[in-house]
Design goal:
Blueprint lengths: L2 H13 L3 E5 L4 E4 H17 L7 E5 L6 H11 L2 E5 L5 H11 L3 E4 L13 E3 L10 H7 L12 E6 L9 E5 H14 L7 E4 L6 H14 L2 E4 L5 H5 L1 H7 L4 E4 L1 H10 L13 E4 L6 H11 L3 E7 L4 E5 L13 E2 L3 E7 L22 E7 L5 E2 L3 H6 L1 E2 L2 E10 L5 E6 L4 E3 L2 E3 L1 H8 L5 E11 L3 E10 L8 H8 L10 E5 L12 H8 L2 H9 L9 E2 L2 H14 L3 E7 L9 H21 L4 E7 L1 H6 L4 H17 L3 E4 H8 L3 H6 L6 H8 L2 H9 L5 H25 L3 E5 L14 E3 L2 E3 L2 E3 L9
Parallel strand pairs: 1-10, 3-4, 3-5, 5-6, 9-10, 9-11, 11-12, 12-13, 25-26, 28-29, 28-31, 29-30, 31-32
Antiparallel strand pairs: 1-2, 7-8, 8-18, 13-14, 14-15, 16-17, 17-20, 19-20, 20-21, 22-23, 24-25, 27-32, 33-34
Amino acid sequence: MNLLYSMLTNAKAKAASKAFLTDIQNNEQYSYETLYDLTQSIRHLLSDYKVVKGDRVAFVTRNEAMFYPLFFACSAVGAVLVPISPENHPSEIKSMLMDAKPKLTFYGEGMEDLSILGKQRIALKKSNLPAITGEETLKCLPLSDEECYKDDDALIIYTSGTTGNCKGIVLSQNNLYSMANAFATMYKYQENQRFLCILPFYHINAIMVTGLACVLSRAHIVLSSLFGPLVGKFFWKIVSDNKIDVLSLTPSIMAMLLKLFPSGADHDISHVSHALVGTAPLSKTLWKHFEDIFGIPCYQGYGLTETTTWATMTPMKEPRHFESVGLPISCCEIKIMEYDSVGEVAYTQHQEMDNRDKKVGEILIRGDIVMKGYYNRKMFTKKNFFKGWFKTGDIGYFGKDGHLYIVGRIKNIIKRKGITLFPEEVNDALREHENIVDCCAFGVEDELLGEKVILACLVKDKEQEDVSEFRSYLRSRLSSHKLPDQYVIMREFPRTSMGKININELKSIVGGKRASEVIKLLNIPKFRRANCENDSEINRLVQKSILSGEKLGMIAYWGGGKRSKLNKFDIGALDNIEMIKVSINELMGRKSIDFTLILTDIHVKVNRVPTEIMEAYFAAIQSEAESREIKTIQLSHIWEKSGLDFDAVVNSVNQPGFTEKWKRFGHQELFILQAEKRCSTSELAMVLAKQYFAIVEAENTVIARLFADHIFFTYNDLSYKKFLPKLPTVHWYSHVDGNTKKSDKPWFTN
């Protein structure tokens, strides 16, 4: 029996005219009969491309209503659907497709580089489908139902896309049907009940919670854009306008809604009966806070893509257990694999598995919801099973109440002085603190301790830097050997697309690896390799920006000469700055650079360049720079704000004390040499050189003060550092006619 296709035919038979899906992105509504007709149309399309049982069919798209008829069309012919996110890097998408080898690839909006999709590709939209209307037309276009079995492959979900590392999880018809039935039964899905879908179809949660379970129950799916800043801003309006009954959320979405609406929803949401929360652990603090503010009961579950989502579910009627992830569902078994004396999981033939209270170990699962395996990875599949039980890699225990409690992940366990520590125990203790939004403990290698415990914290008070109160708080709640060795306050945690904290990324950030990657990007201009002055200070500024989420400040002087228009070297220099901004922003995943060009009109004035030429040139630079989101400011404005007077500074060269300063300077020849290039007499060159010196001495202190915590970029080499503001500095070199050449000028250009 074709379990999944029969799900559709039953829905069509019993609720043909009922609403199946409302697509609020495109203002379209589909009935179950329309879903059935679209499915038949896609079946004909699959037939045209000779897609048969066992073939893979990829769908690279954001959330689109056409996902559902494509899914059921594939199920009807026994093909395997492979949904892929277009947000993945092209190399990741290519890696997944090379692994899956689909017979046909559909794509939707959001996919730009079509070349990586292969030759057998087509845009999935109604205009590309054969027209199927009414029973008479269907009779003229006969389709043979492929005989399918419950263990036949139905879906491949990729959980990692790194080149050469993609991991496809194969789910069968029985996996998907069993899980849909579990959700529908536990949470009493009803016909016409309205479910809001804001999670992506290329993850199993949306496919199950606001997908197949709804079709099985003939419920009504309301399809929105993926949750993000815009959807978040209007979230409760969407919920209210569409009379949503059930929400599907993640802990990160809940935290964002609390941040956006601290006093409660801004629309009537009294019709919302409850929310189902998955994809990441839901802390007791966040759980209770969300329910208190919005008045919506929340139920969480625990599972993985490998278990077709939730293997445990929070019951709706039992007393609340905020620390647990619920009870095992009826179509699976869960056991705990105990630890041995040195803290390692013992997979032995004689290892006993039972549910004794508080026996901590790895969570093992078997049953109808456990995946068939990893696609094309037999050895990896074998490694992740023990005597028919799937090894989750999660650590937990069963309480006396039969509820499952999660302690952490095996790979996240910390071994400090030979003692096994569970990060979640530290996290749960600090999450009760009134100023903590979230926290994450993890271990890093340490010569003395083996591993030291670092606790990264997100705090409500954005100005807080002192962690002493957190130390005291945990000291009263944890044994001394469990206390963190280091606390780090951050603005946000790196997360996966489903809202889970990315531990590897977090370690990279806190450990300084990410800062090192950013600093390497300061050398991108294809000139001579840049030299960084005060490397440790630059590292401090970069790390501070990464942890705080604030933009990293950068400045550079921009000189002017005798031209009034931009030339290719001006554009090239701006290209270099933009290249750095874009590269660092991509690495950081946000706009993280605040670059300001200081237009040195004061220096140009000393050079005696005509005012109209200087103004035209700097106006052109300003326009071009700001079109690239590079800020500009006139040096004269800085002088004015700082109380520096041009005439007074220039005339100071005639004051009695100036001659002694000039003699002690030690680099008079360099300044005079540059001035002679602009002067007709040596006497005038001497005057200009002294004026430059007076200007440098006056403004450097001001620039260093106003732009403290900024990185200074210059095309002058290291020998000129004495003439520059005392800031952490990156020295680039000039570029002339395609050849690299050290700059031999302080900051004014020919």
